[in-house]
Amino acid sequence: MSRAHHILIVEDEPVTRATLSGYFAAEGYRISEAGDGEALRRAFARGDVDLVLLDINLPGEDGLSLLRDLRRTSEVGVIMVTGKSDAVDRIVALELGADDYVTKPFDTRELLARSKNLLRRTQAARAVTPDAPVKRFDGWALDLDRRSLTDPQGSDVRLTRGEFDLLAALASNAGRVLTRDSLLDHVSHRDWAPNDRTVDVLVGRLRRKIERDAKVPTLIVTVHGVGYLFTGR
Description:
CATH class of the largest domain: Alpha Beta
CATH architecture of the largest domain: 3-Layer(aba) Sandwich
CATH topology of the largest domain: Rossmann fold
Number of strands: 12
Mean pLDDT: 84
Number of domains: 2
Low-confidence stretches: none
Largest sheet: 5 strands, parallel
Radius of gyration: 18 Å
């Protein structure tokens, strides 16, 4: 199945772009290349892109702006590949919906492994599971089959993949305290550092979307020193 996957490499540095393209093509992936935002949009408009490797430092529109635009219309897998190691850039990328973040210089084998993991997760997310339940809480409805969230007024609320996976894990374990480590496993499926803030960032985003008052949360409650508790009410 992986040999049919289409990867779009967005990188303005020709040598790096050629290196990545050659490496992933040798692994059997279909490759498209883009050196800037305009080329990205042209490649993406042709459809069939399964994964985007997106550099932050691009001429014209930077990668974060392009990521914001992508997330308005698509849930395609996105791995930020950048020379910027600043934690702020990483947090902003996660806030905007990036699935993963790799800094240069990187090991191409590690990038391949992360890409395979993300492609596997996105493929599984599209799989049909007819008997998946609908989780209901405080007037909300989380459909695990359709991967959709409906607010108390019946309107669809858009979630990024990470937000959905985290809310699904919390709602499926209502009344139980889940550690950050276990939640991180649900949303990343990759190696992580002890100071990884992915879960906290996603919780903050979810609270702004589903809590009546994000500053005084009653659905997703922090259990200090442990993790989070989903009350389901």
